[in-house]
Recover the amino acids of this structure.
């Protein structure tokens, strides 16, 4: 059975296997293998849809919330377009989760929107204090959190608020001169 942390690896393995199917030389075998995958995905999707309907009909909001919060179930709900939260709502939750870890305040990351192509647009404020590596680490962490919460997004565009960059620290040469003498030890 897959553990929650294996979801990304399993998705990659499925994609690799599907790509291998496309390279089969026998078109009849390739077609049957692709049909098998399609039928299984549809079957599991239909079963998952029925689970969501039953949970919704019984007004078990807490159960649906727990299902949607599980990484493995959540990714399957997204795959079958059954997730109870929209892409923007899941991105907002991901941002709420990553802010404290990155030491960002409530206004440190702003969701500007998700466009029709599936690109998440974010605005970042007050990070890195001019250090490109700090900003890059923060941006990478945000992008990972967003993609984990909403794997269907096609990209994450992070813009920095204009005027938010601190001036670079300037280090100048020391003028040559007498070196200070160390204190003498008695």
């Amino acid at each position: 059975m897959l553990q929650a942390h294996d979801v990304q690896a399993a998705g990659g393995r499925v994609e690799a296997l599907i790509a291998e199917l496309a390279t089969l030389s026998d078109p009849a075998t390739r077609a049957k293998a692709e049909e098998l995958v399609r039928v299984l995905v549809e079957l599991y999707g239909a079963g998952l849809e029925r689970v969501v309907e039953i949970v919704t009909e019984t007004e078990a909001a807490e159960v649906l919330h727990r299902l949607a919060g599980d990484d493995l179930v959540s990714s399957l709900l997204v795959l079958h377009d059954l997730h109870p939260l929209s892409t923007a709502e899941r991105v907002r939750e991901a941002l709420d989760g990553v802010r404290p870890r990155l030491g960002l305040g409530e206004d440190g990351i702003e969701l500007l929107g998700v466009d029709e192509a599936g690109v998440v647009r974010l605005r970042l404020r007050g990070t890195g204090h001019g250090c490109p590596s700090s900003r890059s680490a923060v941006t990478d962490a945000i992008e990972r959190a967003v993609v984990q919460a909403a794997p269907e997004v096609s990209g994450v565009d992070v813009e920095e608020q204009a005027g938010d960059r601190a001036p670079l620290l300037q280090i100048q040469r020391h003028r040559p001169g007498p070196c200070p003498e160390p204190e003498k030890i008695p």
Summary: The CA atoms of residues 135 and 158 lie 11 Å apart. The helical segments are 7-22, 27-57, 61-69, 71-79, 87-102, 132-149.
